[in-house]
Amino acid sequence: MKRNSGFRITTCFITFLFFCLLSGCAPKSEGIVVLENKDIAYNKFTIEGTDIYPQVYAVDWINEDTVLDSRFRLYHLKNKKAYFLVFDRNAREPLVSPDKQYLFYRISKRNQLGNYYMMHLPTGKKIVLPIKEQVLQPSWVDNQTILFMTGKGETFSVNIFGQIAKINDSFQTVKEEEGYTSHLVRVGEQFFYLDGAKLMVWNQTTNEKKQLMDHVYDMVLSPDKTTFAIEKLIPKDPNDKGKEFFVGLKVLMLMDTTGKQQKIVAQSNEIMGLNWSGDSQKLSYLIWKSYATNQTELHIADIRKAEISILATNIQSYNKQIKWSPSGNKVLVNGLLKIDTPEQRHALYILQLKHSNK
């Protein structure tokens, strides 16, 4: 796999994985397989320990030892006890603030709008937000404000005090059959978003709108709001560059907020699950190795040192973002686990990372 960015992938992991595939030494578990490597001189990240929690699906971290699960419970990893935050089975769409102090969510019955809420997590106090339409693509701008769109193509912001404001621009420009607007994020006066597969930016002050890139499938902004991790489709054949239709290959690249492309981190048939660590220095992602078996690998890239480590395999391809703990010493992965039954069960994996400065 060619890498033209200067990123160096840990070769001993590839050798180990290749050997296991040939010899059949890989574990037969249906769950996530953690790769072992004792020679940390070649690997900056290894997994110090793995904890598995069957039948738990985590939404996000609350602190280093607690996660919010999909049932709106605070799940404590040490004693495996859970406490409901919201006592309503119709609660949905949770979104935790970057500082883990607030929870944005919705309570609605099927085919009804319901109400949107903002909860202060340390106290459990909540307010009803003055939102009258269904929220699409919500994202936290900072620790107090959420940016979102509606089904009508309008854009609003709402803060933790319940104050709502309309953004005076419509980001929907492509025809409905060509795609829709998504991934809307704000950096200062600039709004970045995907219009179909086109990466666009709109400046609220100058009202200027321009296209930065095409064939983009995913983008995630770093916590310090300086760098985008972008999943983009490029032609496998360089001779197809510039053509509208081509056989493609996914690349993971970095772009700053001026639109300058910085470097390519990885390339594969499929890349997913992009997420930044809290210090904006490390990037986790999944590489899909096989369409036939849904085989994936968990990678971590140290952006500053241009080093990549492969930590685990057999991660199911339906996984969404992998979440870093506040300290950056753990990551959570929602995966599958085989439990003596014909069907697969979901499970939460907590991977404890060890970093070497060698």
Write the layout of secondary structure elements.
Blueprint: E1 8-9, H1 11-23, E2 33-34, E3 45-54, E4 58-63, E5 66-69, E6 73-76, E7 82-84, E8 91-96, E9 102-107, E10 115-120, E11 125-128, E12 135-140, E13 145-150, E14 155-159, E15 164-167, E16 181-187, E17 190-195, E18 198-203, E19 209-213, E20 216-221, E21 227-235, E22 248-256, E23 261-268, E24 270-276, E25 282-290, E26 295-302, E27 307-313, E28 323-324, E29 330-338, E30 344-355
Parallel strand pairs: 1-27
Antiparallel strand pairs: 2-27, 3-30, 4-5, 5-6, 6-7, 8-9, 9-10, 10-11, 12-13, 13-14, 14-15, 16-17, 17-18, 18-19, 20-21, 21-22, 22-23, 24-25, 25-26, 26-27, 28-29, 29-30
Summarize the structure.
With 358 residues, this protein is mainly beta.
List unreliable stretches of 5+ residues.
1-6, 8-30, 36-42
Termini gap:
25 Å
Largest sheet: 6 strands, mixed
User: Rough shape?
Assistant: globular
> From the alpha-carbon coordinates, what is the Rg to the nearest angstrom?
21 Å
CATH fold field value of one domain = Thrombin, subunit H
Number of strands: 30
Label the CATH architecture of one domain: Beta Barrel
Average residue pLDDT = 81
Helix/sheet category: mainly beta
Strand percentage lies at over 45%
Name of the level-1 CATH class of one domain: Mainly Beta
| DSSP summary: helix tally | 1
Kindly report the oligomeric state of this protein: single chain
Please characterize this protein's 3D structure.
- With 358 residues, this protein is mainly beta.
- It has a domain at 99-167: Beta Barrel (Thrombin, subunit H), CATH 2.40.10.
- The protein contains one helix and 30 strands.
- Strands 1, 2, 24, 25, 26 and 27 form a six-stranded mixed β-sheet that branches. The chain has a four-stranded antiparallel β-sheet with strand order 3-30-29-28, with no helix packed on it. Strands 4-5-6-7 form a four-stranded antiparallel β-sheet, with no helix packed on it.
- β16 (181-187) and β17 (190-195) form a beta hairpin.
- This is Lipoprotein.
- Keywords: Signal.
- Residues 1-28 form the signal peptide.
- InterPro entries: 6-blade_b-propeller_TolB-like (IPR011042).
